[in-house]
Specification:
With 308 residues, the protein is of the alpha+beta class. It has helices spanning 24-35, 65-69, 107-115, 138-143, 184-194, 220-225, 236-240, 249-256; strands at residues 12-18, 40-42, 51-58, 73-81, 83-85, 94-97, 119-123, 132-133, 136-137, 153-166, 171-178, 199-209, 212-213, 244-246, 273-278, 281-289, 292-303. The chain folds into three domains: 12-71 and 211-237, Pseudouridine synthase; 73-209, Pseudouridine synthase (2-Layer Sandwich), CATH 3.30.2350; 242-303, Archaeosine Trna-guanine Transglycosylase, Chain: A, domain 4. The chain is built from eight helices and 17 strands. The strands form four sheets. Strands 1, 2, 3, 4, 7, 10, 11, 12 and 13 form a nine-stranded mixed beta sheet that branches.
Length: 308
């Protein structure tokens, strides 16, 4: 695929199967290089150790980030018992070791403990995270031995299922579905403490972000080999999963002009987003407002993908 420099006419959503060892920013830079498009971002960071679904936005489609970042995410995690690390995962330095209680290796007890995680919790983020406080990033402070005191944040575990238990080493394989901002590393850490032991995250794979699943993700090698990158773009309307409004020629002209109240909406609460499409192509996200709608993110050229 030949690369062009600067801004291109590309506008789409790529679902990448991120390999272990790369940061999310590394993947973004790779996509920039391969497409020649400067405007590239992602919708939800994955740690370098983690693999799986990384939603990458190309060109004007980066305006969709707020709607894709907030999506529920699903992970398969391996939790190793017996030690904590400073990063709460296997990439970190061991800071605490502890004996592992026998019940940790009991599938019935483990399953009950995992199931008890479903619900709303207050979670203290890992010291090594991208959270900023007073202009200082947590992981930068931690690297200098001056970990920030991070406040607990409200998160939700909407589903948790034990997939398997190993005895040597003591480990659980767990599937989680969680809200935006949930750190699986912190769940692993807190599980270890809950059983009066210690634990950290041994491996992590994101299998879904909203409606975008690992089965539809592309390896970076596929992107490099593609003659037409748009053939790999996901359907933006399905990706957003929002209520859909189709507009005609007159309607799309109003949308491209960014006119508020261009479409009448009934039954949606104020502020609720909805997709606006013209001839099957996403051209905007509007927000419900007093029975009508106003533009929230307008993409005049539309977003490629699916049947568009």
């Amino acid at each position: 695929m030949s690369a062009r420099r600067g801004a291109t006419e590309l506008s789409g959503i790529l679902v990448i199967d991120k390999p272990s060892g790369m940061t999310s920013h590394d993947v973004v830079n790779r996509v920039r290089r391969l497409t020649g498009e400067r405007r590239v971002g992602h919708a939800g960071t994955l740690d370098p150790m983690a693999t799986g679904v990384l939603v990458v936005l190309v060109g004007p489609a980066t305006r969709l980030a707020p709607y894709l970042t907030s999506a529920e995410k699903t992970y398969e995690a391996r939790i190793l018992f017996g030690s904590e690390t400073d990063t709460d995962d296997a990439d970190g330095r061991v800071t605490v070791t502890s004996p592992v209680p026998d019940e940790v290796c009991d599938p019935f007890a483990a399953s009950a403990m995992v199931a008890s995680l479903v619900g709303v919790h207050e979670q203290v983020p890992p010291d090594f995270s991208a959270i900023k406080r007073g202009g200082v990033t947590a992981y930068q402070a931690a690297r200098h031995g001056e970990a920030l005191e991070l406040e607990a944040r409200t998160i939700e575990v909407t589903a948790a299922r034990l997939l398997g238990v190993d005895v040597d080493p003591a480990a659980w394989d767990v599937e989680f579905a969680v809200s935006k901002g949930t750190y699986i590393r912190a769940l692993a850490r807190d599980l270890g403490r809950a059983v009066e032991s210690a634990a950290h995250l041994g491996a992590l794979r994101r299998t879904r972000s909203g409606s975008l699943a690992i089965a539809n993700a592309h390896k970076l090698e596929e992107l490099e080999a593609a003659e037409d990158v748009t053939s790999l773009f996901a359907d933006p309307i399905e990706a957003l999963g929002l209520p859909l409004l189709q507009v005609d020629d007159a309607g799309v002209a109003a949308v491209k002009d960014g006119r508020p109240r261009a479409v009448t909406v009934e039954g949606l609460p104020d502020g609720a987003p909805l997709s606006v499409a013209y001839e099957g192509r996403l051209v905007a996200v509007y927000a419900a407002c007093d029975g009508s709608a106003k533009p929230a993110a307008v993409i005049p050229g539309g977003v490629s993908g699916g049947s568009a």
